[in-house]
């Protein structure tokens, strides 16, 4: 990893991060093993799991200082696992990974107690750098510049998040959302609502339209 000045970015390890062990939870075996090897090379005792139940079992017998959780997994989500691990060991520092990062999802993760939220792909250096930033959540760039999403937009994102967690199963998603299957289908046919316009951008649009 290089910085804009062409210097090689420092590679963090167990000593610099101040932790001895890390739990990696991802349902993709290849990614999990590759990240596991990278963390072992950096001096960590590494524990791995492929889903919520396996992670809880591993963590119960061999708790870790750090944890990196995939948001979307078969069964219970990474967000649910995050809450469970913090119940078991409140001082565990946790990062959530997602292949489809969004501001509302990152806020959910931070509110649940995550140190940070990263979008995939993220390598060992990305993850350890996020831990090194300290326990101050790093909110995705742009969150300050944009106003709060509309209620319609929040609903739309929530519906699609639940549908994604159900692997596209509309019946299961409707059950979790507490609405009729046909009602969910009607909502899914709608386009994503627009967020409120940023004041500066709105001014520019008005200028260009005039």
Secondary-structure map with pairings?
Elements: H1 14-17, E1 21-25, H2 29-41, E2 45-49, H3 52-61, E3 66-70, H4 78-88, E4 93-98, H5 103-112, E5 116-119, H6 124-132, H7 151-165, H8 170-177, H9 181-188, H10 199-209
Parallel strand pairs: 1-2, 1-3, 3-4, 4-5
Helix pairs in contact: 3-4, 7-8, 8-9
What are the salient characteristics of this protein?
5 strands; 10 helices; disordered N terminus; 210 residues; Rossmann fold; 2 domains; phosphoprotein; alpha/beta; elongated; Arc Repressor Mutant, subunit A
Protein described:
The protein is an alpha/beta fold. 47% of the residues lie in helices and 12% in strands. The chain folds into 2 domains: 14-132, Response regulator (Rossmann fold), CATH 3.40.50.2300; 147-193, Orthogonal Bundle (Arc Repressor Mutant, subunit A). The protein is built from 10 helices and 5 strands, in the order H-E-H-E-H-E-H-E-H-E-H-H-H-H-H. The model is unreliable at 1-7, 135-148 and 195-210 (pLDDT under 50).
Strand content: 5-15%
- Return the domain count: 2
**Order of strands in the sheet with the most strands?**
2-1-3-4-5
Strand count, sense and barrel status of the largest sheet are: 5 strands, parallel
Query: What form results from the Cα inertia axes?
Result: elongated
- Secondary-structure-based class equals alpha/beta
Query: Termini distance?
Result: 46 Å
Q: What is the helical fraction, as a range of percent?
A: 40-55%
Q: What is the CATH domain class of the largest domain?
A: Alpha Beta
